[in-house]
């Protein structure tokens, strides 16, 4: 991460931003084997609940609610499909139909169990994975659009209503049916000057 700032409090702002990003990465990255999401993914299908930070449990539960409100357009268990397309390796390619079908069979956020009171989560089947990365989680089974299982053409992933259609208000995302979602982890750990 490269940041340039000016002003008397610039170095403190950079330090706070870097700390917030590192905290979130440590919690949410699926490629960092020490992160809570990576541990959740590794335990998929073994029946054991994985302890997670309360913010992570809230985020997972909130993501499930969004998936229910946007069926076929948003699902955080999309990781196997992202891998099938090569998005996580930078070796992007069109997957074979059978590989894509196998990956799609693992996408179902209803099979993600989240206990916000116990701050724990589990994935029902081996091979399932959560991915909270940028532009990922936008596709799910039953979607509409240019690619199987995707509600939008993947060239435009992240540009639709799911990522930009709602403005954050006080660190919360409004729910489609009214009310607000949980405070985002970034909003709770970032400070303003």
Word description of this protein:
The chain has 193 residues and is of the alpha+beta class. Helix content is 34%, strand content 9%. It is built from seven helices and five strands, in the order ααβαααββαββα. The strands form two sheets. A three-stranded antiparallel β-sheet has the order 1-3-2, with helices on one face. The chain has a two-stranded antiparallel sheet with strand order 4-5. Strand 2 (112-115) and strand 3 (120-123) form a beta hairpin. The longest helix is centred in the first third of the chain and has 19 residues, at 10-28. It is globular, with a radius of gyration of 17 Å. The model is unreliable at 135-193 (pLDDT under 50).
How would you summarize the topology of this molecule?
Blueprint: H1 10-28, H2 36-42, E1 50-51, H3 54-69, H4 79-84, H5 97-104, E2 112-115, E3 120-123, H6 161-164, E4 172-174, E5 180-183, H7 185-189
Key terms:
two-stranded antiparallel sheet; 5 strands; 7 helices; disordered C terminus; alpha+beta
Q: Please, what is the oligomeric state?
A: single chain
User: Shape from CA axes?
Assistant: globular
Estimate percent helicity: 25-40%
As a whole number of angstroms, the C-alpha radius of gyration is 17 Å
Residue runs with pLDDT of under 50 for 5 or more positions: 135-193
Tally of separate helices? 7
Structural class by secondary-structure content = alpha+beta
Strand percent estimate: 5-15%
The neighbouring-strand order within the major sheet is 1-3-2
